[in-house]
Amino acid sequence: MNLHHPLLSDSLAAEYVLGTLQGAARRRFENLLSAHPALRRAVSDWERRLNQLAVASPPLLPPPEVWQGLEQRLFPAEPRRSWWNSLALWRGLALAGLLATAVVLAPQLAAPPPQGNLSFAAIRDPNHDVLWTVAMAEDGRLHVNSLRAMDMPPDQRCLLWLKGGERPPVMLGTLPDQGDARTLVLPANMPHPSQGMLWVSMQPRTDATPPARPLYQTRWQTL
User: Fold this and answer.
1) Residue 97 pLDDT exceeds 70
2) Which terminus of the chain faces fewer neighbouring Cβ atoms within 10 Å, N or C?
3) Torsion sign over Cα 73, 76, 80, 83
């Protein structure tokens, strides 16, 4: 495995940050992080991309039950060791650390409504390399990232489609192909994008006919 290859390291970092890299593969990746700066940079880049999606999300405070449970576990009414109560400074430091952590983890500690989940998809080629990532913002827009520049014919473009059930696919927009990012504004009166599969087609720039079969296809994942 050539971890110095940028496409491989970026693909592994994407799956690691999204949580789709699991089991022994995830443990091996974590062991390699300390020895490979390229992997650490790729992980940081993916964390930065996904954190941008949270900017528009409203802050959520943990419910009272979470605070009460943490307080009972950290500061029981009857400490096991009598000398613990004399160390007020340590309690203060622990509470300050707890509050600082809660500010970061508040969205995860709260019980968000189902529509607050992040829908994400990775579009891969036949070699399982990730070509595009698609993330759905809370306002319904799609944030699309092209992970590498593609050698596209000048008269061709890649289109993103939503295929749901027996209905013909609905075009969502043109995919970026130069290693950049793009935000797609969805057509009005269309099904919710997460209710269906994503198709990719390569077509002439003057043609927007729904494809009979996709060039690539993928399913949504909920984070």
Assistant:
1) no
2) N
3) positive
The string of pLDDT tens digits covering residues 167-180 is 888 888 899 888 88
Domain boundaries, the chain: 6-53, 64-109, 115-222
Which amino acid makes up residue 150? M
What is the token pair recorded at 58?
Answer: 């409203």
Task: Give every CB contact of residue 16 below 8 A, 6+ residues apart in sequence.
Answer: 26, 29, 30, 43, 46
Residues for the chain: how many in total?
A: 223
d(CA 77, CA 79): 6
| pLDDT, tens only, 38-96 | 888 888 888 877 776 655 556 666 677 777 777 777 777 655 555 445 555 555 556 55
pLDDT at 154 over 80: yes
SS3 29: helix
Query: What sign does the dihedral 219-59-14-132 (CA atoms) show?
Result: positive
pTM for the model stands at 0.48
Beta bridge partners of 183: 143
Burial 141-164 (b: 16+ CB within 10 A, else e): ebbbbbbeeeeeeeeebbbbbbbb
Task: Round to whole Å and give the CA distance between 186 and 201.
Answer: 17
Mean pLDDT of 205-219: 89
CB-CB contact of 183 with 152 (8 Å): no
CA 79 to chain centre: 42
